[in-house]
Design a protein that fits this description.
262 residues; alpha+beta; seven-stranded antiparallel sheet; four-stranded antiparallel sheet; globular
Length: 262
Amino acid sequence: MDDILDLHRYPLDHPGSPDWQALVARCKADLAVNGMFNLEGLLRPEALPGAVAELQPVFETDAFTHTRRHNIYFRKSIPELPADHPALREVETTNRTVCADQMGAAAVIRLYEWAPFASFLAATLDKDRLHVMDDPLARVNAMSYAQGQGLNWHFDRSEFTTTLLLQAPKAGGAFEYRTDLRSDTDPNYDGVGRMLRGEDRQVRSLTLAPGTLNVFRGKNTAHRVTPVEGTRTRMIAVFSFYERPGVLFSEEERIGFYGRAA
């Protein structure tokens, strides 16, 4: 993996070593304060063009274009809320998606299946172990956002999200987030409505550099990617790990996310 990862700066291949433990401690501290940590330049700069080139032809010919209107919860309704509540305001998301079964032996697949990667993530998140998905479509996704496209406000279903930015646009495509907008015990619907109206001063914006690994606790932190501006797309890989082995999406979930069941 040394050909694509900066393992001198980020010694993921030496679990338990002093440098590895120091990196894990730093990531844990960032998670506690910011709800995320970033490893800028984990993917070597010289490896980025190849990682993009491996996926670009698939995006051009076989990607699934997904355009949908949704609320921040990706649910048609919330039982305790009236349909016109500000927290249920609809927004639009559009992107192109490539699935793991379309990637062959791409660099992002190599990284996903490299056991020290999952072990490192588990340590930063205080998990005994993390497992790759068995799902041939969902295990790794690559997403591309062109001019005017973005990922709109939402909460994640999973506890954490792991992404690797492969290509940044010329403008736009910023990662915006509002840390701990809700909690497991308080949905804070009125606060969600205020944020969607642009009235929350605690919303933050982050512009990531290509090659950066981002691990983010998005279950209770609202977040979005602003629309891309210009001719260069924003391309990102999304890695799915679970605490239990053998996880598969349902046929309905696959069709909803990818337009196909297999």
